[in-house]
Amino acid sequence: MNLPIRPRRNRQSSSIRGLVRETQLRPEDLIYPLFLHEEEQNDAIESMPGCHRWSLDGLVEEVGRAKEVGVRSVVLFPKIEEALKSPRGEECFSPDGLVPRAIIAIKQAHPEVAVITDVALDPYNSDGHDGIVEKGEDGELRILNDKTVEILCRQAVCHAEAGADIVSPSDMMDGRVGAIRSSLDEASHEAVSILSYTAKYASAYYGPFRGALDSAPKAGDKKTYQMDPANAREALREAELDVAEGADMIMVKPAGPYLDILTRLRDRIDLPLAAYQVSGEYLMIKSAAKDGWIDEEKVVLESLTAIKRAGADMILTYFAKDVAKRLG
Ligand code: PBG
Asked: What is the residue-averaged pLDDT of the chain?
């Protein structure tokens, strides 16, 4: 064949493929989500094989193991005892709460690790929603936006006081980024960043996570605050608001099924962009690999590379420690 242009020339050896590779996944791109509870022992999480609810000591050790393989950022998700839950979730801003104590313990042992905290009411709220629930006379549940934002601000300041580097509102209330920014600044925490869950979809992929924390809504669903999976332009609108309100970084969640949203936001918004490979994405890979149907190591690497290629600068993934070990 008379073919002057042959794309295969750039694929002919591992070294040449290395030269032309467009996307590099690095351990420092990864944020490791960690679950914790008020117990002495570490419990394996049934709905998320390979993940644990850590005791405070176990948590600090796991952060150390992650750090050794190059993962320098973690995000914390607490399982709160039923007795501490309430309709307004006040436990979320208790300075003696589980999360502030965990932040202090991690920072003491590993001061260079960036500690990110989740800002939302669902682990603390007796209704299992991210905001305060009111039952209307018609029996319909309403999530009270502005009252919720007041509590989220107190939660964010509480995390900042304990030493969090980044607070990450995952609640999807309107106006929370701006309100949290002002509250942090008023409390002299202008150095604390906000990673906003900008486009968080009302997704069935969160199922295993809610099992891990026992945080599923007691009634209703999250569709009046989390986004409709059918919408893409709306993500841009949310992102523009987050930029205006002072977010430092934005996020798309879930990641794998929403690569188009990542690309759109990458093209139109200049802030650093995060993607969350959520519990359902994790579990699907784990379950398929368990019986040898797919090769876990290869699929994990491919899924994370695809998320980066689509536009993410950083990725929250339960595979963070495992995959970093292999990248190093
Ligand atoms: C709640 C929150 C959820 C996740 C992170 N923060 C669940 C939800 O919105 O119901 C899900 C993460 C995952 O599935 O891995 N604020």
From this structure: 96
Whose CA is closest to atom 10 on ligand 1? 206
Query: Is the separation of the CB atoms in 170 and 201 below 8 Å?
Result: no
Angstrom distance (rounded) from CA 190 to CA 167:
12
Q: For residue 7, what are the contacts with CB-CB under 8 A and spacing of at least 6?
A: none
DSSP state letter for 175: T
From the alpha carbon of 217, which atom of ligand 1 is closest?
10
Handedness of CA 285, 168, 201, 133 (dihedral sign): positive
Domain range summary for the chain, segments of one domain joined by +: 26-327
Report the Cα 21 to chain-centroid distance in Å. 27
Confidence grade of residue 260 (pLDDT, cut at 50, 70, 90): very high
CA of 19 to the centre of ligand 1 (A): 38
Q: Encode pLDDT of 199-229 as tens digits.
A: 999 999 999 999 888 888 988 899 999 999 9
* Answer CATH for 26-327 from 3.20.20.70, 3.40.50.10490, 3.40.710.10, 1.10.10.60: 3.20.20.70
